[in-house]
């Protein structure tokens, strides 16, 4: 994954101001910074949920600026998303939630039947396939969300504060899972406030402040800003 | 495309918004029913024109005290006139017989009319129906045994402008009702999209195609449109059976009003169904494009 310059004025102040960075395939990157520093905009641009005002965003060799609207779904099939609030369908079981992501992109049901138990086993939920999200703990729900994001084997996994609602021990479990996913070759980009995690993982850290990259450090820590 | 998946989404959507769905179906049904009625009236009018305009165009009513010579004179002049295509003599008895038949549904009226109250007449078919004045000038009223010359075409024109007005009014109400139905469909779809925003958001993020995301909503509207159309067709059938065939049975038998055939309803039904499905589906599609981010 490679991405160059983007400028994005939302209100008076740009959300991202002339940001240039490059994230390679298979990297694990923390995106840190205070609220409103542009982390979410950064992720949204990668998904083409928004288009940059100027500059170019390139994902998997595709320039998003010129990507036509009907190709956006194809782009998103190569990316997985995890959020702070899990975003599960509460009236469907764990297995159905994961299967949903495959059903709506027209995967054959044979594949779905095979792949869903596999990925549930990988995230450690093999016994809970038929539970409803409401019956699970927060950490388990996030595992379902990760399973759903990963079930289609994306090239990139975007995580927007995935541990924001979880206690430290549960967060640790989630991080181990994300690390495991990263080891399969999937690029992981994770926006977070959780300095414990950043400090203990020692991965690349990109710090945003007021829409500008103030730090880009491999094997970084959360730093003095906290 | 997973048919089961899409259909179960449609079913859930319709169930969740039951009241809105019912309102949507009813307005659509009323609108389509009125449209169908308008089409049936239009068909009726053209049938009626065939019945009436083919017949008499000018009537020459004879005076009470007409003599045999005067009658023979009129007849010979009609025979010779180049303007006249054909004519028919109707005696007092024949006039009364026709009257009895026409008003068989109103026996009091027939009872109160003495058999000789109706004048004898010549019913004239013109070469050119517009040239009524020529006949009127040739047979001045009140002279030579002629009581009155009447242009039946003029009466028919007024009758048909009345019927055309009824048809136009029906269609106008149908259009207003259709507008209400469209707005209601648009609202229902917005509500449905809001109710299912979790699903559609996830679908968007995992890369479901726009078409895949929208289809359940469009089908939902189209299905409601179809049910509305079926209700409208049912309404037309009931109208035919309960109103047209019963209440208007007399005039229809007498040949005053043409009957509403099953064939006509069969012809109009697919038009109504297509209009219902098409309008609802299009309204849903446009709504999704304009108001809903999918």
Task: Report on the architecture of this protein.
- Helix content of chain A is 32%, strand content 24%.
- With 226 residues, chain A is α/β, with parallel strands linked by helices.
- In chain A, helix 3 (94-103) crosses helix 4 and helix 5 (138-150) runs parallel beside helix 6.
- Chain B has 2 domains: 3-52 and 157-291, no CATH class; 55-151, Alpha-Beta Plaits.
- Chain B is 72% helix and 8% strand.
- Chain B contains 11 helices and 4 strands; from the N terminus they run H-H-E-H-E-H-H-E-H-E-H-H-H-H-H.
- Chain B has helices spanning 3-16, 18-53, 68-80, 92-102, 107-111, 132-138, 152-195, 197-205, 210-247, 249-253, 262-291; strands at residues 58-62, 84-90, 121-126, 146-151.
- In chain B, helix 9 (210-247) packs antiparallel against helix 11 (262-291).
- The model of chain B has no long low-confidence stretch (mean pLDDT 84).
- Chain A binds chain B through residues 47, 69-70, 72-81, 87, 89, 100-101, 103-106, 109, 148, 152, and chain B through 1-2, 5, 198-199, 201-210, 212-213.
